[in-house]
Write a structure and sequence with these properties.
membrane; PH-like_dom_sf; 40% strand; Pleckstrin homology-like domain family A member 2; elongated; alpha+beta; seven-stranded antiparallel sheet; disordered N terminus
Amino acid sequence: MSAEEISEILKEGELEKRSDNLLQFWKRKTCVLTTDTLNIYADTQKRNKTKELKLKSIKKVDCVERTGKFVYFTIVTTDNKEIDFRCFGEDNCWNAAITMALIDFQNRKAIQDFKTRQDNENASPGQHEMRMARAP
């Protein structure tokens, strides 16, 4: 990982992901949450990156349930795919960390979109005046 990536790390540790196959076993993964992605590695040395889940492709964190020693939650992607995870107890609140990172990402995107829209309106004052002239 580069120095830039290390400075953006919000949470790092182990998380269990339910496999997509028919038997749906829980597999322990090493995960790194940054301000833009959730990186899921198959091994603890982070040599084999199995999946990079960008926050812009996550719709929400859903179905949080606590049972015994585990907290279960589902990440729903923008294409409505559901990915199931579980982590140990409340000390390891991956669901909360992912939710907060997602909210922060969406807020930054909304501010960026607003500034872009404002810059576009300020760059063409003639367009704004024409719209105002047509307004009732």
